[in-house]
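Supplementary material to the annual report.
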Amino acid sequence: EAQVTQNPRYLITVTGKKLTVTCSQNMNHEYMSWYRQDPGLGLRQIYYSMNVEVTDKGDVPEGYKVSRKEKRNFPLILESPSPNQTSLYFCASNPSATGELFFGEGSRLTVL
Amino acid sequence: AQSVSQHNHHVILSEAASLELGCNYSYGGTVNLFWYVQYPGQHLQLLLKYFSGDPLVKGIKGFEAEFIKSKFSFNLRKPSVQWSDTAEYFCAVNARGYKLIFGSGTRLLVRP
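Predicted assembly:
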């Protein structure tokens, strides 16, 4: 089954404790991206990747890092999480630059 | 900067009522347009998309949208809503290759 898989789905952590949210897709898509969803703000892009070792900042990259060492994986790293990073995070992939995204199930992160 | 506006943040309808959700974008060039739906507790799914051709686009579950270039609009419609259409709806625009810009979303509640 074609899918985008994120882990963990739910996480509660404390300020400053590094964490990684993993994302994996099995559709051989070249493009992957991370979004955060906040009430009233819709989805905002954090980072995206056009291919292995090619990443770029989205609209809200501060406080996040990403890497794309393999085509299928695109982890999101929060080196020192802060409460304002409490949000619902979605990973997405797409096969081309047409913008039709396939989303993961989401990861709800709470930073205390 | 490109932006997407969804004018209705919350919509409440009774079953069998007609639905129209507004979406306007700010970009003068060629665009790809999308509507995504997010059912409670789930990830975003593609409802329909417009790339070119017939400006009236039909999607899944009886939804359709009309692209009106002169008005920079891509409104979503459904003649008769069902309780199962209760969800949040996001309009999105791809105006610069890969980057997809989302509106802030419209929460639809359909009363049985």
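The mean pLDDT of chain B is 92.
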